[in-house]
Design goal:
With 235 residues, the protein is of the alpha/beta class. It has eleven helices and nine strands. The chain folds into two domains: 162 residues, 3-Layer(aba) Sandwich (Rossmann fold); 55 residues.
Length: 235
């Protein structure tokens, strides 16, 4: 059976996920409040839907890619949202970096109407979303994850099931904490080397060949820190 897939939130992350699925032959529809985001997604093979209600009612798997936890609550439990219009058997996959508490709250409420909720926050940035190489840390019941897996495999390179609902966001928060620490410590290391008249780019090459390497030294600093772009690519 072909799973009809919908994406709510077509920014740099959600738009990339939707386009990747469409490029692999999935039946993908999308909704966004931005007409520009809808047009961009349509140009990449995603079917634009003008009303959120229509999308919620028409898909088997519904992916959320939203700014933060309160938006997840609004889309899932608010007026005109998933709890109101989602049909029994729908699986919601939330890729938002949310909170464990919100994931569990939403899952409990949606379960009352036979809707499953999976928290699957992602890592890899817009490039990872656009190329299907991003990673996912997943909180879900085994049966729900098995049903959603074909879609998740189509939009990501690595998937780690870390526990039941909420566990995905616990893992993502831990990841973000470490990423922030690495970014700060790399900045201190580069500043120290600069005071010693060392070339930052050469320093990073050395760090990346040794045990001090991290996502900050391998990706963040070379891509958007040393060039002073300070743009991680998110919308």
């Amino acid at each position: 059976m072909t799973l009809k897939t919908g994406v709510i939130g077509l920014g740099n992350m959600g738009g990339g996920m939707a386009a990747m699925l469409a490029s692999k032959g999935f039946d993908v529809s999308g909704f966004d409040l931005s007409s520009a985001a809808l047009a961009q997604a349509e140009s990449k093979g995603v079917k634009p839907v003008a009303e959120r209600k229509q999308l919620i009612q028409s898909v088997d798997i519904l992916i959320l890619s939203l700014p933060k936890a309160e938006h997840v609550e609004s889309v899932c439990l608010g007026a005109g949202g998933i709890s109101e219009f989602g049909r029994e058997g729908l699986i919601v996959v939330d890729t938002t970096t949310s909170t464990p508490e919100m994931s569990r709250k939403v899952a409990a409420e949606l379960a009352k109407t036979g809707i499953a909720f999976i928290d699957a926050p992602v890592s890899g940035g817009p490039k990872g979303a656009a190329t299907g190489t991003m990673s996912m840390v997943i909180g879900a019941e085994d049966a729900d994850l098995a049903r959603a897996m074909p879609v998740l495999e189509g939009m990501s390179g690595t998937r780690v099931h870390v526990g039941q609902c909420g566990a995905g966001n616990v893992a993502k928060i831990a990841n973000n904490m470490l990423a922030a620490c690495h970014l700060i410590s790399t900045a201190e290391a580069v500043a120290m080397a600069a005071r010693a008249a060392r070339d930052p780019e050469k320093l990073l090459q050395g760090l990346n060949a040794g045990s001090g390497r991290s996502g900050a030294t391998q990706v963040m600093f070379p891509t958007w820190v040393l060039n002073k772009a300070y743009d991680s690519g998110f919308t």
